[in-house]
Design brief:
With 263 residues, this protein is α+β, with helices and mostly antiparallel strands. 33% of the residues lie in helices and 27% in strands. The protein has seven helices and 14 strands. Strands 3-4-5-6-7-8-9 form a seven-stranded mixed beta sheet, sandwiched between helices. The protein has a five-stranded mixed beta sheet with strand order 11-10-12-14-13, covered by helices on one side. Helix 1 (3-24) runs antiparallel to helix 2 (43-59) and helix 5 packs parallel to helix 6 (211-223). The longest helix is centred in the first third of the chain and has 22 residues, at 3-24. The protein is globular. It binds D-MYO-inositol-1-phosphate and calcium ion (2 copies). One calcium ion is lined by residues 45, 68, 86, 88-89, 91. Residues 45, 68, 86, 88-89, 91 line the site of one calcium ion (CA).
Length: 263
């Protein structure tokens, strides 16, 4: 099957899954916790993941799936075609706000991001990209990002990373926040990547993200010229949880050089 037909297929199941999620608000939603009391999951996260897995396994039996809720494959290498899926990114928003969450999907071939999707379900906003073919927001082509200095930049960052934490020195981060034009936090890494790609924010960083949080967004962001790396400056980690930063060119360098001091 060609990448064009995989792209059409992925778009159509993402829209179908979005419809299921919107309908879920008419039924009772079971809320559970995972690693700690604030790490939430619902029956809808699990059902939506299962919906994707059933379809992908039926129609692409030789592809693998890395999904947040664990019903997919045990993925320890990036060989072959892998669908990296977060059925609901921003589960806390899904539960508390009933908005500001997204379906995030990246399709990788031997570790190379070929197709990326972020679907902001309640706004019906669709972001997607195909490697080498540009990125789109609701079917409109997104322009390339230009250089913005930190003092004119809006930075996406969660307040946890401004407080003392075990991953990095927070003092330089406080200085960065004083230098930049403003900060925002949306509670969905996928939405923050979509916002970097559409120039609503200029950078997004987090000390702890999983492959499914960023896999779709990386493909989109790279198509508009954003730089996405770990905070060691390496390619984003698609096999395990790691640090992550995405920013306009220039700004990425400025933040990495002057404000990121890993412990
Ligand atoms: C979370 C969101 C959040 C980020 C967390 C993620 P989830 O994903 O992307 O913005 O700060 O690190 O775990 O659990 O809602 O899919
Ligand atoms: Ca997530
Ligand atoms: Ca999730």
């Amino acid at each position: 099957m060609s990448w064009g037909s995989i792209d059409r297929y992925a778009k159509s199941i993402i829209k179908e899954a979005g419809h299921k999620i919107r309908n879920s608000f008419f039924s009772h939603i079971d809320i559970d916790t995972k690693s700690d009391a604030n790490d939430l999951v619902t029956n809808i996260d699990r059902e939506v993941e299962k919906f994707f897995i059933d379809r992908i396994k039926r129609d692409f039996p030789d592809h693998r799936i890395l999904g947040e809720e664990g019903a997919g494959d045990q993925v320890t290498s990036l060989d072959g075609v892998i669908w990296i899926l977060d059925p609901i990114d921003g589960t806390m928003n899904f539960i508390h706000q009933r908005r500001n969450f997204a379906i995030s999907l990246g399709i990788y071939a031997d570790g190379v991001g070929m197709l990326g999707y972020i679907y902001d379900v309640m706004r019906d906003d669709f972001y997607n990209a195909a490697k080498g073919e540009g990125a789109y927001f609701n079917d409109e082509r997104l322009p390339q990002l230009e250089i913005t200095p930190l003092h004119e930049a809006v930075i996406g960052i969660n307040a946890s990373w401004v407080a003392p934490n075990r991953y990095m020195d927070n003092e330089p981060i406080i200085r960065m926040i004083r230098q930049c034009r403003g900060t925002r936090s949306y509670g969905s890494a996928a939405i923050e990547l979509a916002y970097v790609s559409t120039q609503r924010i200029d950078a997004y960083l987090s000390m702890r993200l999983a492959p499914w949080d960023v896999a779709g967004g990386i493909v989109i962001a790279q198509e508009v010229g954003a730089i996405a790396t770990t905070m060691k400056g390496e390619p984003p980690n698609l096999l395990s949880q790691d640090t992550f930063i995405v920013a306009r060119p220039g700004l990425h360098e400025e933040i990495m050089k002057n404000y990121i001091h890993l412990k």
